[in-house]
Amino acid sequence: MASAPTAKGHLLVIPKYHGAKLHNLPDEYLQDILPVVKKLTIALGLNVDGPEGTGYNVLQNNGRIAHQVVDHVHFHLIPKRDEATGLIVGWPAEDADMSELAAYAKELQAKLA
């Protein structure tokens, strides 16, 4: 991720607790993040759906391989008002084997129990 804004209104929401990655933060430092982001979307006028819609991305990266540059958890709110500005994503999608996904889901459910 570039260190410069990608669109007017691109901002960061930063927890006060220092942790390099999301899993390093205590839950209480995360509980207000989405409500704050929601309020900011309204303040930026991103909650108004026009004929072509207004979009935005909420982005949080963990680790260099995942494009994290700053070693302090932070969340990007990136307005997407047109095709030329904001986050541009290239998603390397793969065909899914549904039986493998179902088995993996069961494995994860067991770890969460």
UniProtKB/TrEMBL annotation:
<feature type="domain" description="HIT">
    <location>
        <begin position="1"/>
        <end position="87"/>
    </location>
</feature>
<dbReference type="InterPro" id="IPR019808">
    <property type="entry name" value="Histidine_triad_CS"/>
</dbReference>
<protein>
    <recommendedName>
        <fullName>HIT domain-containing protein</fullName>
    </recommendedName>
</protein>
<feature type="short sequence motif" description="Histidine triad motif">
    <location>
        <begin position="72"/>
        <end position="76"/>
    </location>
</feature>
<dbReference type="InterPro" id="IPR036265">
    <property type="entry name" value="HIT-like_sf"/>
</dbReference>
<dbReference type="InterPro" id="IPR001310">
    <property type="entry name" value="Histidine_triad_HIT"/>
</dbReference>
<feature type="active site" description="Tele-AMP-histidine intermediate">
    <location>
        <position position="74"/>
    </location>
</feature>
<dbReference type="GO" id="GO:0003824">
    <property type="term" value="F:catalytic activity"/>
</dbReference>
<dbReference type="InterPro" id="IPR011146">
    <property type="entry name" value="HIT-like"/>
</dbReference>
<dbReference type="Pfam" id="PF01230">
    <property type="entry name" value="HIT"/>
</dbReference>
<dbReference type="GO" id="GO:0009117">
    <property type="term" value="P:nucleotide metabolic process"/>
</dbReference>
